[in-house]
Each structure stands twice: as C-alpha cells, then as structure tokens.
Amino acid sequence: MLIVHSTLTSKAQTTIPSEVRDALNLRVGDRINYFIDGARVMLRVKNKRAVDLAGLLHDPHRPAVSVEDIETSIADAIADDVAASR
Hints:
By secondary structure, this protein is of the alpha+beta class. The chain contains two helices and two strands.
C-alpha cells in the first residue's frame, strides 16, 4: 500500500498527488465522485467519454444497421409503449 499526502489550503482546495493521478489515470477535465462512509472517503474517477467507448459493441459478424433503421426501430418502440399505456 502506498501512502501519499497533500495539504488543504485556506480555500479548501488540495492538489491531487501525482502518484494518485497516475494510479487513477486522471486527466484534465475528468470528474471525480466522492463516496463518504463515516470517516472513510472513496474516490471514483469518471473519465470515460463516449468517444472512448467507440467500437466497444462492434461485432464483425453482425450486419451494419443504418441510422434510418435505428430511428425507425426507436419510433416503433415508442409507438408500442404509447399504445400499451392506453
């Protein structure tokens, strides 16, 4: 276990030590979520952007679907939901 320190300023700010930034792969603009459990605080970095997920669900064996087909499927699903709620 690595222990690193930082100091809280008079404006309630602190610098995240480089060891922590490196371990969490923090970059400028990343969001950090704080989970507080009594005296324990856990950090979770929210640094995945939509562009980072590009190709994640790609299946080379599945045929490509056009944007028009996707929009039609969404419209059909909404119409089905509306009809079911009546």
